[in-house]
């Protein structure tokens, strides 16, 4: 399967969640077993030699492929969630979005200085949530941090990659715009 084939499985929903937005729906990728396997294979090949010990999935679509990839890499899986969703003591980071602020958190004991961490989510648009998640993970001072997405949107007004600190190791499977 090729990147073009994966792209052909995406559903584009016009005017969602608001008028003027072209929403790339990855649920159509996940309903096809071959697409899931291909996405997992691509990410596994990218990270198999990096010594990943923890994969952090960003709520909620980052949980899907992130958990599968953690299993394949022989790594643990960490949930990065909105406040109040995790049962034990957490650490959190708040960040600005287009229309206000938001917060993301993980368990206080989720990551150690001995970990090599891969943060994963489905889509890079503005970068706000993942930049905050990376800042949160880096508070634990892991040996290394990597960032991955299925899709990167590059179009007018969306320069998510530019939001990351210089030197961030960032990988996307597909670039759309």
Features:
single chain, 177 residues, alpha/beta, five-stranded parallel β-sheet, 5 helices, 34% strand, globular
Architecture overview:
The protein is α/β, with parallel strands linked by helices. Helix content is about 30%, strand content about 35%. It has helices at about 5-10, 25-30, 35-45, 60-75, 130-140, and strands at about 10-15, 20-25, 55-60, 75-80, 90-95, 100-105, 115-125, 145-155, 170-175. Helix 3 (about 35-45) packs across helix 4 (about 60-75).
Q: What can be said about this structure in brief?
A:
By secondary structure, the chain is an alpha/beta fold. It contains five helices and nine strands.
What fraction of the residues are assigned to beta strands by DSSP?
25-35%
Would you tell me the structural class of the helices and strands?
alpha/beta
Q: H/E series, N to C? A: HEEHHEHEEEEHEE
**Helical residue percent band:** 25-40%
Per DSSP, the total helix count is: 5
What is the approximate shape? globular
CA-based gyration radius: 16 Å
Low-confidence stretches: none
Major β-sheet strand ordering? 4-3-7-8-9
User: What's the average pLDDT?
Assistant: 95
Topology readout:
Blueprint (H helix, E strand, L loop, with lengths): L2 H6 L2 E4 L7 E4 L1 H4 L2 H15 L6 E5 L2 H13 L2 E5 L9 E8 L2 E8 L8 E9 L3 H11 L5 E10 L15 E8 L1
Parallel strand pairs: 3-4, 3-7, 7-8, 8-9
Antiparallel strand pairs: 1-2, 5-6
Helix pairs in contact: 3-4
């Amino acid at each position: 399967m090729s990147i073009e084939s994966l792209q052909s499985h995406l559903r584009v929903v016009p005017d969602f969640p608001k008028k003027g937005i072209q929403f790339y729906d990855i649920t159509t990728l996940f309903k096809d077993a071959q697409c899931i396997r291909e996405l997992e294979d691509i990410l596994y090949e990218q990270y198999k030699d990096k010594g990943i010990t923890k994969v952090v999935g960003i709520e909620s679509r980052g949980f899907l492929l992130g958990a599968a990839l953690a299993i394949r890499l022989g790594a643990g899986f960490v949930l990065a969630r909105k406040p109040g969703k995790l049962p034990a003591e957490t650490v959190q980071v708040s960040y600005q979005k287009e229309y206000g602020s938001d917060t993301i958190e993980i368990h206080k004991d989720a990551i150690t200085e001995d970990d090599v961490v891969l943060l994963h989510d489905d889509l890079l648009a503005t970068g706000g949530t993942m930049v905050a998640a990376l800042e949160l993970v880096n508070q634990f001072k892991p040996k290394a941090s990597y960032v991955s997405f299925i899709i990167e949107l590059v179009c007018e007004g969306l320069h998510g990659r530019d939001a990351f600190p210089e030197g961030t190791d960032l990988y996307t499977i597909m670039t759309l715009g």
